[in-house]
Design goal:
alpha/beta; Rossmann fold; Dihydrodipicolinate Reductase, domain 2; 8-stranded mixed sheet; 6-stranded parallel sheet; 14 strands; globular; binds NADP nicotinamide-adenine-dinucleotide phosphate
């Protein structure tokens, strides 16, 4: 059994707990918060056995094998490093850290310490993504793809009211690219690899973060992918992948549940990818399998690194 603690007390930690409840080898026992009352209230509300507000004490506990980190992006690095140094396995929310250099350092540290480090990029562990990839050969030579994640955040109203909020705070590695855009980048890297060239534009909002952005990525062989992401506007548009023999459309880049393939010969097929409504289950399962088997994280880390490298190229192209 992998005995785990949570770091962060926002909604996403509740979703993690819901997902972890269906993974039999994971037992989440402890809630950490910087504030003792919040830690206790969170533990009581979610049914966790204990709570703690001293991170050093949590990481020193022999009763905790691993941590799930869902703090603001800018806090991940220090907490991941501390946990690894204490010999704990780490499942950390996306993006694992803001830069590829920092991820390389942490991956090396995890390897030296003999612990698992995994980024919780939920769309990449969703079997729907692999199902999508399996449909692509029918499209012939791929030429265009268009991936989007645009969802207006209620926290944007706070920004407009002059408040500083983590998810829109550049000092906390907030902003649309690192929050929602990173799902489109990870999907692009998973489906097509790393692009040769990247051009990008973004919309700055008060406080200095990007509120929305767009990317054009070109691949050798003649594939152009556009990415669109926003936390200040909303879109219900589908994602699309075009090949010389047909077009695939699918909903929700963070949770692909279905796809339609329309071939130019008139054939249309609909595909449903069954799965739990909370697709964090898949990343928790992957984490548990890796811990249980002392498994190889090379492919997971390669994808995280490729995603972070593309994010950095987008940032420098803006
Ligand atoms: N997979 C998904 O679908 C999904 C969805 C949403 C978010 N996320 C990811 O989850 C992470 C958290 O995002 P969020 O929007 O929930 O963040 P948030 O609300 O700003 O903060 C999350 C938690 O971190 C703690 N915290 C707040 N400020 C902190 C600081 N300055 N230093 C250290 N800890 C701090 C707070 O817990 P205490 O005050 O109790 O310590 C808070 O509950 C991000 O990495 C985000 O990308 C993933």
């Amino acid at each position: 059994m992998i005995r785990m603690a949570t770091i962060g007390t926002s909604t996403i930690t509740r979703s993690f707990l819901d997902a972890a409840a269906s993974v039999p080898t994971v037992d989440v026992t402890t809630a950490y918060s910087r504030d003792p009352e919040r830690a206790a209230a969170f533990a009581a509300d979610t049914g966790l056995a204990s709570s703690v507000s001293d991170l050093d004490a949590l990481l020193a506990s022999p009763e905790v094998d691993g941590v799930y980190i869902a703090s603001p992006n800018g806090a991940h690095g220090d907490q991941v490093r501390q946990a690894i140094d204490a010999g704990k396995h780490v499942l950390v929310e996306k993006p694992a850290v803001p830069t590829s250099a920092e991820f390389v350092e942490l991956a090396d540290a995890a390897s030296s310490a003999g612990v698992i480090l995994l980024e919780a990029m939920r769309n990449c562990y969703d079997p729907g993504m692999a199902d999508l990839a399996g449909l692509l050969p029918a499209l012939g030579t791929l030429r265009r793809a268009s991936l989007a994640y645009c969802q207006r955040s209620a926290r944007y109203d706070k920004v407009l009211a002059g408040e500083r909020v983590n998810i829109f705070d550049p000092a906390m590695a907030g902003g649309a690219l690192l929050d929602l855009g990173v799902y489109t980048v990870a999907a692009m890297v998973t489906l097509f690899g790393e692009p040769e060239r990247v051009v990008a534009a973004s919309i700055p909002i008060p406080g200095g973060a990007d509120g929305a952005g767009a990317v054009l990525a070109t691949f050798d062989g003649g594939l152009v992918v556009d990415l669109s992401y926003s936390k200040i506007t909303a879109s219900g548009r589908v994602n699309e992948i075009q090949g010389e023999l047909g077009t695939l459309t699918f909903e929700h880049v963070a949770q692909p549940t279905s796809a339609r393939v329309a071939l130019l010969d008139g054939t249309v097929s609909d595909h449903t990818f069954d799965g739990p409504s909370n697709n964090m289950v898949h990343e928790v399962r992957r984490f548990a399998d890796l811990v249980d088997t002392s498994g190889d994280t090379a492919s997971d880390h390669a994808r995280t690194l490729a995603t972070l490298r593309v994010v950095e190229r987008i940032q420098s192209a803006i």
